[in-house]
Every structure is written in structure tokens, then in C-alpha cells.
């Protein structure tokens, strides 16, 4: 059974059955976009496109899927026979992973026979919503860290196993140095990091015994957790163990703080190591960090070299979802839209053009796909006839793209609190078509002239 193809909302299937019953097989275009910014956001970082393309390439209903649908008694045998032969045969235009985008802009557009495009909705939203949310928050953490390294520690508190993998990938894409997630390391080639928990310390009679045992096991990769009983006293014991290691030709790599007043304790720990002639030992901090806590601790003078970021990045705690939508914008050559209050959509197949000033992003223009403007086009065709165009990009390539992209974003848009928003306009031809279709819909559906 292909569980992924059944990972959908029931109404996708009932709509598909109705399309089939009425022989509606014409080409449709659906646009994926985010309506509003969460609090304190002024941009989104694109992530998840590789998963979307992999899903569309493998899209198919297998015997077990069809048997289950048949058992519900909802769908006709003719429709189920149709699904047994169904493959995704359409096209996808998308903004590349690692690029920034803004509200209302199409992240991707799917063009395919309407049943194919409709059935893809739920999984596409699921894949992109999570990864964009995480990647965007991770980029904010990287910015707040001011060049210090960050490691994803979120796996144990993400909302499910698959989410843990996507968090590791999305945070690395945004500039994290590594992850504690070993499977993510294997699948994505992300450096893995981790040493010990408090249970290791408390399993020994004395804290120093635990330190020595770990140093003997991993003499070239010793990072000691020093806050189990008293952080500063733990640092003094770590200095003693470090000197014992030095006599054997090894060096203490670092220590980790996981609780307490991080700014004050990190400074006190640094003084202990300097007094012991070990000022180069790295101080690593974990425990409830996100961009806001990182920024606060560093602003208070915290002497920390790297951070482990866990629960709050893994759940994007302050903004756990986006107002993301996948809407029909064209069917059988006819531009369509939704007029619902607060949820209006933009008609037609589209392109986004970016304009720069002094090397910084100045504004974006959402235009019709064939509306040629002088700016940089962001969407490109990535799938044709149900097959991706070119090889999948490496995570390192996407990561480098984001690093270059982020340099083009002005500091006022990166602010952690109440950032300025980049101006997004509609192109002249799109605006004209939008007005025409709105007038036509109001006349036809509401009796307005």
C-alpha cells in the first residue's frame, strides 16, 4: 500500500470523483502561497520543494489503497479503475529552495489535468508549511547568534518522526552547523553532534568520575555537561580532568551548560577556564533557546561559542504554522478566483519579479506568467510531464544559495521584533485581469453590474 497517496483529505477524493463523473479533465493551475506573516516575521525562507517533486513523481494508487477506498462504499468502481491508472503528468513552476519570498507570492504553481492537480493539494501544503516554518525560524536563530554555531537538538520534541527529519534538514539549510538526529545525518549528510545527558553523570558515584570515564572513551571529542549539580564547581572539575587529558596528549574540546542564568554562568565558567590556562575550551549552551533567548543572552554579555536549539525550533514555537493556501487560479484556460473576505486570490498563472537597489532587495512584483518585466524572475519550471527537470539539488547547494540570498536582505527586514516588510506589488497586466475577473464574477454570481 502506498500510504503517501492516501495521506490526503477526504474532500480531495470526493471532488476528484465528481470531476470524473462530469468528465472534467481539462488543465488546471493551482497556486501555493502564504496569506499573512506570523508575528514578528517579514520574510519566508523556501524549503520543501524537493519533497514535493519526489511525491509527485511517485504519485500512484496501488491495490491496497484502492481496496480501502472501495471498502468505504463511497466511490464507484469506474472511478476506482480510473485511479488505478492515474499518474501525475503535469508541470510545476517553483521558487528554488533557499530563496526568500514574501506574503501573497506564489511559492509554486501546479498545472495539470484538474484531478491530478487537486489530489496533490493536501500533501503539498503539509510538506511546505512545516519546512518553510522551520527554515524561517532557523534563519532567525542564525541571525541572532551573530556568527556562533547552532546545532539542532529538537528530535525528541518534534511533532512526529518525519517532522524530526524535516526540522534537521530545514535548519541546516538555514545555516545550522549540525543536528543531534543521527538518521538525518545519514539521509542528508548533515554533521551530527552530541555527547552526554545528565543521566550519564548521575549514574556515577561522583561527577569527576563521569567526566574521566567519558574522556577515556572519547579522548579526542570530549565535551562535558557541567551543570548537573553546580555549574561553576563542574567547570573546576572539568579543568582538573582537562589537565589529566593533556598529560596523555589530548585536549578537552568543550563544556555544555543546560540551565540557569546563561549570561552570568558562561562568564564565570570562562573565568574558571582562563584561570586554569584553558581559555580556548568552547562553551556550548542549551536549554530553551530560540532567536529571542539567544539574542537576550548575548546582549547580556554571555560568553558562549555555540548553542543547541531544541524544542522551540522543532515546533517553531512562536509561529507554529503559516496561513498557507493552495488555490485554483485557472481552469480550461479561464482565469478564476475566490472573493471571500480576507481570502481573495490572484487569478492566472504567475511569475514573481525581484528588484534590487544597492545590492538589497527593494521590492517584488507579482505578475502574469507571460508579463515580461525587467526584474529577476523567481519561479522556474522544475517539472514537466510528471518528471523533474534535472537532478535534485544537494543540500549544500541550497544552503549556500540561502547564505548569498540573506545578504541581499536589508537589516531592517531581519529584525526579531516588528521588522519592516518588503513592498510587494501587482504587475500592470495582472492587476488589469484581476479587476476584469472580479467584475465578471460579481455580475454573474451577485447580480452586480
Task: State the main characteristics.
nicotinate phosphoribosyltransferase, 2 domains, alpha/beta, 19 strands, TIM Barrel
The total domain count is: 2
CATH architecture of the largest domain: Alpha-Beta Barrel
What CATH calls the topology of the largest domain is nicotinate phosphoribosyltransferase
> Which outline best applies?
elongated
Whole-angstrom Rg: 26 Å
Strand order within the widest beta sheet: 13-12-1-5-3-17-18
- Quaternary structure annotation: single chain
Secondary structure class reads alpha/beta
Helix content percent band: 40-55%
- Spans of 5+ residues with little confidence (pLDDT < 50)? none
What would CATH call the homologous superfamily of the largest domain? nicotinate phosphoribosyltransferase
List the helices and strands and how they pair.
Elements: H1 3-6, H2 10-21, E1 27-34, E2 44-45, H3 49-57, H4 63-71, H5 77-85, E3 91-94, E4 100-101, E5 108-113, H6 114-119, H7 121-145, E6 149-152, H8 161-173, E7 178-179, H9 182-188, H10 198-202, H11 207-217, E8 223-225, H12 231-247, E9 254-257, H13 262-275, E10 282-286, H14 291-299, E11 306-309, H15 311-314, E12 324-331, E13 334-335, E14 350-357, E15 360-368, E16 376-377, E17 380-384, E18 387-388, H16 395-407, H17 411-414, E19 423-426, H18 428-445
Parallel strand pairs: 6-7, 6-11, 8-9, 9-10, 10-11, 15-19
Antiparallel strand pairs: 1-5, 1-12, 2-4, 3-5, 3-17, 12-13, 14-15, 14-16, 17-18
Helix pairs in contact: 3-7, 4-5, 7-8, 7-14, 8-9, 11-12, 12-13
Amino acid at each position: 500500500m502506498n500510504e503517501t497517496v492516501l495521506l490526503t483529505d477526504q474532500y480531495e477524493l470526493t471532488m476528484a470523483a465528481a470531476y470524473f463523473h462530469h468528465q472534467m479533465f481539462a488543465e488546471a493551475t493551482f497556486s501555493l502561497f502564504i496569506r499573512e506573516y506570523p508575528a514578528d516575521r517579514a520574510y519566508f525562507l523556501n524549503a520543501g520543494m524537493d519533497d514535493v517533486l519526489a511525491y509527485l513523481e511517485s504519485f500512484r494508487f496501488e491495490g491496497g489503497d484502492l481496496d480501502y477506498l472501495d471498502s468505504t462504499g463511497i466511490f464507484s468502481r469506474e472511478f476506482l479503475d480510473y485511479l488505478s491508472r492515474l499518474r501525475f503528468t503535469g508541470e510545476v513552476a517553483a521558487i528554488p529552495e533557499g530563496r526568500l519570498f514574501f506574503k501573497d507570492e506564489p511559492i509554486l504553481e501546479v498545472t495539470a489535468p484538474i484531478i491530478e492537480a487537486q489530489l496533490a493539494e493536501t500533501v503539498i501544503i503539509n510538506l511546505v508549511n512545516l519546512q518553510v516554518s522551520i527554515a524561517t525560524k532557523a534563519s532567525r536563530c542564525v541571525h541572532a547568534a551573530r556568527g556562533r554555531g547552532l546545532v539542532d537538538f529538537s528530535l525528541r520534541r518534534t511533532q512526529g518522526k518525519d517532522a524530526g527529519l524535516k526540522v534537521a534538514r530545514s535548519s541546516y539549510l538555514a545555516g545550522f552547523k549540525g543536528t543531534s538526529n543521527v538518521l538525518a545525518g545519514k539521509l542528508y549528510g548533515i554533521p551530527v553532534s552530541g555527547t552526554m545527558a545528565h543521566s550519564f553523570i548521575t549514574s556515577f558515584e561522583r561527577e569527576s568520575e563521569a567526566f574521566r570515564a567519558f574522556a577515556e572513551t572519547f579522548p579526542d571529542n570530549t565535551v562535558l555537561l557541567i551543570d548537573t549539580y553546580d555549574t561553576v564547581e563542574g567547570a573546576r572539575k572539568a579543568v582538573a580532568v582537562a589537565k589529566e587529558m593533556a598529560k596523555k596528549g589530548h585536549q578537552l574540546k568543550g563544556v555544555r551548560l543546560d540551565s540557569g542564568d546563561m549570561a552570568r554562568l558562561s562568564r564565570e565558567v570562562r573565568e574558571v577556564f582562563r584561570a586554569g590556562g584553558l581559555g580556548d575550551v568552547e562553551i556550548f549552551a542549551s536549554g530553551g533557546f530560540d532567536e529571542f533567548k539567544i539574542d537576550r543572552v548575548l546582549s547580556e554579555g554571555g560568553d558562549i561559542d555555540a548553542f543547541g536549539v531544541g524544542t522551540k525550533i522543532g515546533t517553531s514555537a512562536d509561529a507554529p504554522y503559516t496561513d498557507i493556501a493552495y488555490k485554483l487560479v485557472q481552469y480550461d484556460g479561464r482565469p478564476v478566483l475566490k472573493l471571500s473576505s480576507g481570502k481573495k486570490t490572484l487569478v492566472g498563472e504567475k511569475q514573481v519579479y525581484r528588484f534590487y537597489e544597492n545590492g538589497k532587495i527593494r521590492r517584488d512584483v507579482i505578475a502574469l506568467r507571460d508579463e515580461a518585466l525587467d526584474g529577476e524572475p523567481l519561479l522556474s519550471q522544475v517539472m514537466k510531464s510528471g518528471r523533474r527537470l534535472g537532478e535534485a539539488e544537494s543540500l549544500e547547494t541550497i544552503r549556500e544559495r540561502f547564505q548569498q540570498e540573506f545578504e541581499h536582505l536589508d537589516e531592517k527586514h531581519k529584525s526579531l521584533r516588528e521588522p519592516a516588510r518588503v513592498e510587494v506589488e501587482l504587475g500592470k497586466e495582472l492587476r488589469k485581469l484581476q479587476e476584469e475577473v472580479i467584475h465578471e464574477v460579481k455580475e454573474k454570481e451577485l447580480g452586480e453590474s
